[in-house]
Amino acid sequence: MLFLAMWTGDIMFENTYELIVFILNFIGIYDPIYNVFEMFGLEYLLRIIIVLAEIAALFVFILLTVMFLTWMERKVVAMVQARYGPMVTGPRGLLQPVMDGVKLIGKEDIIPAKADRWVFTLAPFLIFIPALLVFIPLPFGESLIISDLNVGLLYIIAISAISPIAILMAGWASNNKYSLMGAIRAVAQDISYTIPLALAAISVVLLTGSLSTVDIVTAQSGTWFGFIPKWFIFLQPLGFILFLIASIAEMGRIPFDFQESESELVAGFFTEYSGMKFAMFFLAEYAHLFSVSAIVVTLFLGGWSVPFLSSIPATFAVLIPIISLAAFVIKTYVIIFFAMWLRDTVPRMRIDQLLNIGWKIMIPLALLNLLATAILLTAGVF
Amino acid sequence: MTWISKDWAMGGIIKGLIVTLKHVFRVGNRPTVTVQYPYEKMPVHPRFRGLHAIDEDACIGCGICEVNCPNSTITIVKHNTRWYPQVNMGMCLFCGICVDVCPMNAMKMTGNYELADYSRESLIYGPDRLLFKKEVN
Question: Which residues, at least 6 apart from A363, have a Cβ–Cβ distance to it below 8 Å?
């Protein structure tokens, strides 16, 4: 009952750390643990352990999601193409990613003779770690956030700007013309599509006046006229479309998959990779898909906020973190499904079309969107 | 002014997206057509040309099938005091001429198509594996 009373009160947790401390306190084991650490004068160690546990939980969640996404991708492709997809391993092929992982771990780790060994080995890590780091300022639900940075959005854009470097490293170090071509294309594409991406995000920042992801999500709670959720997709429809297209291009998924265009370059920048390093590129791709969809949801679809959550009776308020997490995951999976659906529908563009659309259409439109947002904001419409 | 006549709303892509979505949710007559082969098999046509079968009582061992086989697949061997064809499935091209020429209609082809094997010797199907007895009713 105490738990319920404290939840129904106005207790807000800034991040998961405070939530964990509160839960430990509630169970009654926080003080004894704290005293043990205080005996040795190592209180900070307890904080570090709790934060590490959070991060471990986050990474396990991300990796499980990524494994599930590889299965989902194959299933969605199969459904579109009137096939079954993986069916044998586990119920409806659900354990197929595990088998793929086991197979990839068992494979030989080949480094080409004339490759740049250090750069070649470093590149998969450099692409994999930023894909995980992006999740740190993302709110998965109410108070389910590792760290609410006040420059969260800037951090996300900055961290995802590391991946072109890793791609270029992989392509260059492989000493293979296909890898280099794929890497050069990927970098050209990433650089030209980061600009409309950032411009579309800035329009949202104009509306909220904050770069913090938690502030952006809180600004989207509630409804207009009692039935339209206050999501920024309704204020920024053009911004949403631009952001979605630019993020799909950044991910390098099919209408824009120039980094690994199978029919032109063998496999793009990871042609020479095998075994676990290939698996890291593969996982990074899907982690990137998940993170980008989560960012789209956070910016335009209200993040974890549920439009009619405030009308829930106070006795169920204890469920709010769970409901918000579920809402976030469902919205993210809708965006992920859209990306997969688009992948199964459209063919690849040409590289000149890609750059034309990026520089001649998307950037002017994004600037126009930003200008319109600024004018309407100054006029006091929003 | 060609850019005015362009389809800026991306109507073609949206049309395609709707078609694929119909496939995902199986709207209309869009079933899954794949067969989970080792676990379930597609029905075989009645005149499918698979592994041979020889009617034990009807075959007279005349050797017409042996003569007519384009790949020299068939040889007549002795089996239980009578002569019967022996078929080397490694060479058979499943043309069905042996069935057509049989004067007693003793030879026919079954729907068994799972004939992969581990050695060339085991691909030679002797009368012991080909003969069947017609049920008299």
Answer: A195, A196, A199
| Angle value at C-alpha B133, between B129 and B136, nearest 5 degrees | 170
**Which value, in Å, is the radius of gyration of the alpha carbons in chain A?**
22
Question: How many cross-chain Cβ pairs, A to B, lie less than 8 Å apart?
Answer: 34
From A80, A82, A341, residue closest to B33, measured CB to CB:
A82
Q: What is the pLDDT along chain A (382 residues), one digit of tens a residue?
A: 345 444 544 556 677 777 777 777 777 777 777 778 778 877 788 788 888 888 888 889 888 888 899 999 998 898 888 888 888 887 888 888 888 888 888 888 888 888 888 888 888 888 888 888 888 888 887 777 888 888 888 998 888 888 888 888 888 888 888 888 888 888 888 888 888 988 988 988 888 888 888 888 888 877 777 777 888 888 888 889 999 988 888 888 878 887 777 777 777 788 888 888 888 888 888 888 898 899 999 888 887 877 766 655 555 666 777 788 888 889 999 999 998 888 888 888 888 888 888 888 889 999 999 999 899 888 877 6
- The verdict on a CB contact (< 8 Å) between A341 and B31 is no
Rounded to the nearest angstrom, the minimum Cα separation between B24 and chain A is 5
- For chain B, how many structural domains are there in total? 1
Give domain status of residue B29, yes or no.
no
SS (H, E, C) A113-173: CCCCHHHHHHHHHHHHHHHHHCCCCCCCECCECCCCCCCHHHHHHHHHCCHHHHHHHHHHH
Task: Give the domain extent around B96.
Answer: 52-132
Question: CA distances (Å), A46 to each of A25, A144, A147, B43, in order?
Answer: 14, 20, 17, 66
Q: Is A236 strand, coil or helix?
A: coil
Partners of residue B22 in chain A, C-beta under 8 Å: none
Tell me, yes or no, whether B4 lies in a domain: no
Contact A187, A358 (CB under 8 A): no
Report the CATH number at residue B61. Answer: 3.30.70.3270
Contact A187, A236 (CB under 8 A): no
Q: How distant, in Å, are the alpha carbons of A51, A100, A109, A260, B130 from that of A104?
A: 31, 6, 9, 19, 45
In a domain, B84, yes or no: yes
Query: CA B56 to CA B106: how far, in whole Å?
Result: 8
Provide the 8-state DSSP code for B43: P
The ipTM is 0.73
Nearest to B20 among A80, A83, A84 (CB): A80
Task: Assess contact for A97 and A68: CB atoms under 8 A.
Answer: yes
Report if residue B1 sits inside a domain.
no
